[in-house]
């Protein structure tokens, strides 16, 4: 049987069989007779026990052990939050709604007893366990992932708001009402607190070291994707509603335009970090590589998204232009310096100057080899995160080096290739250089993923990484 709550991974839930009207009528008569003998409380309690056990059994078939989870990590709780929403909706719409109607029918002759009996059934079925799970999530460590999960919880509760009011609106359900209001307030407060801290937390990343390999910092890729989530369905409308409610408690206003401005400020703050990170390298070439990586990542991954649409085409094109600029700077400051080492200046090709020419060729090949090896060894540890950009950059590097080297060797290689010490100077063929250069900037197999650094300071002054649970590593930009 397919899970009525949705999702094929859950065990099948069993909806209690509908009790025939004739049985309901007989139960009503029995209850009325017991009530006449002063045993209404005993009868109501027995009925609540029986029906509560039935509803509880139906819910247990879904596998609700996760409701007891106590993890302080919102990311670890994420799969359970999705199940929680489906299961709570199923419990309300398919189980408790039916039980309330059944209570009204059974206690038709004693309507004052129906609300109390239903409240006991709901409690016995475990409705408070669902609310306790929400509280456990609200108490998890603060990080951006937690904000999304809190919005999921609020969205679910908001969709069930009218159902909760109808089912649990009476005096008999005062505890459920109180716990629900408390959960909603805790969720709203927690979500707004995290959201309002995001720009500050992004700014704090400015003083952290950038990746040692020059690749895109995890904070950049994470923040771009995260902000896009906040501005897209379904989170945009939910977050706007949450902040609007929170502001209304303070007699303030909030709207969708203000949300967009707040999210865009996160991206603008992140952009300011770029220059600081690039200046932290001792090598200007690596600074150019980092900036090339970051600007291309922004252009490619935000183009065509809701966030990219709001930032505008001129903003996106500016990042594409910056990528081109830093690509040019990177080539000029690194591989572009090799061609002058193979200068033809001073070469003497007539026979009387052959020894002099040979010495010059040896010197220039020696200088070229040393510079090439040093540069290759250093840059073989660097990464260009985007595969297309990596291939394009390698092609440009090859074009800056290989044709010049091939021409030099065709013209002057014979001067040293027959020399007994030729291997000391002719280390590479042009094809060798081509192959080596095309292996640059690739992420190495088994290389650990860099940690995210979107961090939120908790009340105990400890720093929590936004990527905790995703990458399980230290909260640094490395």
Can you offer a commentary on this structure?
This protein has 478 residues and is mostly helical. It is 65% helix and 1% strand. It has 18 helices and two strands. It has helices spanning 21-36, 40-60, 74-106, 114-125, 127-138, 144-159, 161-168, 174-204, 218-231, 235-249, 256-279, 284-302, 306-311, 313-333, 354-379, 387-412, 414-417, 430-437, and strands at 455-457, 463-465. A two-stranded antiparallel sheet has the order 1-2. A hairpin with a 5-residue loop joins strand 1 and strand 2. Helix 3 (74-106) packs antiparallel against helix 5 (127-138) and helix 9 (218-231) packs parallel to helix 12 (284-302). The longest helix has 33 residues, at 74-106. Residues 1-8, 447-453 and 457-478 have low confidence and may be disordered.
The low-pLDDT segments are 1-8, 447-453, 457-478
Beta strand count = 2
Termini separation comes to: 49 Å
Taken from the alpha-carbon principal axes, the silhouette is elongated
Strand content: under 5%
Number of helices: 18
Find the structural class using helix and strand composition. Answer: mainly alpha
Radius of gyration: 34 Å
Helix and strand sequence: HHHHHHHHHHHHHHHHHHEE
Sheet with the most strands?
2 strands, antiparallel
Helix content: 55-70%
Strand order of the largest sheet: 1-2
What is the average of the pLDDT values? Answer: 86
